[in-house]
Design goal:
There is one protein chain. This protein is an all-alpha fold and 206 residues long. Helix content is 65%, strand content 0%. It contains ten helices and no strands.
Length: 206
């Protein structure tokens, strides 16, 4: 505190101008754990302080909340399709036969659904984020590649005037959201991986 008062008195005496935050920085130095103290010309760099993971700014929390909502929305979207593979395997067996031209047993469909559910749980918690987010994104991308022709005619109607290509367009929007989620992993603070990254240094699997 004496250092803070001395700094402010000296500035007033000699008419020096500093930013509003500059006089507060030395005082903050006393509140920071020793291993996070990064001394600069003014005693402590708040930028380094935040980067070390000790604090998050209002905008950090705002970005983190947005990514958290995006992540949970995508996880719920994929979780519904995964659970339906367990509940109604016959439907996906028919889709695999009619669209992909392959025969799948119920056991294979259960296995795919189980993998997707496991990835959804990991993504919801924010664990192994590159693997879990990327895995869900890759699976969704595979679904998109199975029906390219439907994207070329998004306003098609059947004989009763019902739009028949609306769901594929929704799938494209979900794919764009997955790309955004992967690009924003560094702002994904409200997750287990984000917490580990701030407190245990960066690792790609966090």
């Amino acid at each position: 505190m004496a250092d803070l008062l001395s700094l402010m008195t000296t500035d007033i005496k000699y008419g020096r101008k500093r930013s509003f935050i500059a006089p507060i920085i030395p005082a903050c130095h006393l509140l920071v754990p020793r291993r996070f103290r990064m001394v600069s010309a003014y005693g402590l760099s708040l930028h380094s302080f935040a980067s070390a993971g000790v604090i998050m700014t209002f905008y950090d929390r705002k970005d983190a909340a947005a990514v958290f909502i995006l992540r949970l929305g995508l996880v719920w979207f994929m979780f519904l399709w995964a659970v339906h593979k367990i509940i109604t395997p016959q439907q996906y067996q028919n889709l695999a036969k009619n669209i992909d031209g392959i025969e799948m047993s119920f056991a294979q469909i259960y296995a795919v659904g189980g993998v997707q559910i496991a990835l959804c749980v990991l993504a919801a918690l924010g664990v192994f984020r590159v693997f879990s987010y990327g895995g869900l994104a890759a699976m969704h991308f595979f679904t998109i590649t199975r029906q390219w022709e439907r994207y070329l005619d998004p306003f098609a109607l059947n004989d009763r005037g019902f739009p028949i290509n609306r769901n594929p367009v929704i799938a494209l929007a979900a794919m764009a959201a997955f790309v955004a989620l992967l690009l924003l992993i560094h702002r994904d603070h409200f997750s287990i991986g984000g917490w580990l990254r701030r407190h245990a240094s960066a690792r790609w699997w966090y």
